[in-house]
Amino acid sequence: MWHNNILETVGNTPLVKLNKITKDIPATVLAKIETTNPGNSIKDRMALKMIADAEKSGLLKPGGTIIEGTSGNTGMGLAMAAIIKGYKCIFTTTDKQSKEKVDALRAFGAEVIVCPTNVDPEDARSYYSVSSRLVRETPNSWKPNQYDNLSNSQAHYEQTGPEIWEQTEGKITHLVAGVGTGGTISGTAKYLKEKNPAIQILGIDTYGSVFKKYKETGIFDKNEIYPYITEGIGEDFLPQNVDFSLIDHFEKVTDKDAALMTREITLKEGIFAGNSSGSAVAGTLQMKHLFKEGDVVVIIFPDHGSRYVGKMFNEDWLRERGFLADEKLTARSIIAK
Ligand code: PMP
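Structure for Pyridoxal-5'-phosphate-dependent protein beta subunit, as requested:
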């Protein structure tokens, strides 16, 4: 038995029970480990779906160039598919993204242009603007636009939702997912709520992002926007893939709590997951009053710890940001807490 190429291995990721880190929660808490996708992240799913839909609609033509603003994981999925399908890739990203992510994209043959983080999306230097300009200037190019391209959430409606429903035998009561483009939470939620409208959908947001305030007040408040460290989630605008009507509650998590929880996941569960997984577990613990015995909570773990070895997995990095005093983050010190 074999797969015809690496793209056929995307999806069907495992669901793994968390045993120690969520011991204060009376429910069964399960992690959907998306790192087993070949690009090591959940974004492989939507990258493939956006490409397949663009090929069908004729937006992406043979030998074309894919140009996208991506924080790395989407780029990885796109670059992997581009190699198999014969496309070129140019990505714009921000100077906040880990070097490991940018290097990995270059390893997949993509051209990567690093843009400043702390400028308005409309600013000509922003990674959104630069990618739009490159699309205008590059013949036979296509911009997936992961934020507003609904093939993104559709991938999760077709795959992630059904997988979770089947893996929990329909017993899931709560879904916890970080919200960036919104594709993961909205597509998965749509499928799950169609199966059982009582399932609660809990979105993880960052301080410095607009989602939570917008959900609670309907106001797009620019004062909510400021720089933050957490990668992959939170935004300074409202992507079309975020379907606010499907999300019951947003929980914000600090950069420090997300970073330290990322470490704790590895040390307590042996799962080497990325920064937004830490955010999602920290947020789940903040919401523990919502869960009761018999509940089945599924937390999405979007990407792999290897992309953060120079960041939260590095003690000097944590100390420089005041996230850690002098102690060493050994398994024993964490578990003794
Ligand atoms: N975590 C990580 C590490 C990501 O790269 C992303 C994608 N931006 C997310 C979470 C959020 O997923 P989505 O874009 O589907 O909302």
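The mean pLDDT is 95.
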